[in-house]
Amino acid sequence: MITHAVIFAPIGQASRSDQIVQRLSNAIITGLLEANEQLPNEADLAKMMGVSHITIREALNTLRANNLIHTVRGRNGGSFVCEQAWELSQTLNPFKSLSTDYLSDLGEMHCAIISHSARLASRRMTQADITRLRDFVSVLDSAQSPEARTQADMRCLLAIAACSQSARLANQELILQSEWSSLVAILFRSDNIHREIVELYTTLIDTLASHHEAESVNLAKKLIDTFTFYLIENKLKHNIN
Asked: What is the mean pLDDT of residues 105-122?
């Protein structure tokens, strides 16, 4: 699954254990990792995320201490997402620990990636690419749960980046999704935001299909700017509450 490929993608250099804790915590409390879902074993996690076994063990110990995962011993054992993890979302919600500057910077970085991807995609997309992207947006349109909407949105954004035919852009989008997806999953609880995003995607696809480069870039920026606006709005609401 694309979602899990992003969640367990390689970790950067700084504060690796803390990065793993934040990424997996966000994925758990937003439902991208579901209750009772088994995590990969320590060896696989270390390999997937590009860190040492000790770093993985430290991160898992922190997640256990936060009651987000529990460990079962024995042949069928392993680390599993706790059933009550969703109930902790109000106290562990990522918006409470992130600054508006962080969200703004994240949005600007994402806007740069997707707008330039749209610029190149408007020149390079084939009819098959357009059809595939329309299918992804159709899945997003029909998705009912925040988790399903987030996964569909990830596919749409990754498809746009892939259609740029730039391996670097596609890889940067994949890396950025580890921060982005767990946050927009909270936004997709709103049916109104979901509908607005679907309409923006639909307009963007029509423009890409017409190979209108400048307008494709503008619409891609509008899409990410809309997400960023709602992310910051949610952050401000948590400051009030």
From this structure: 97
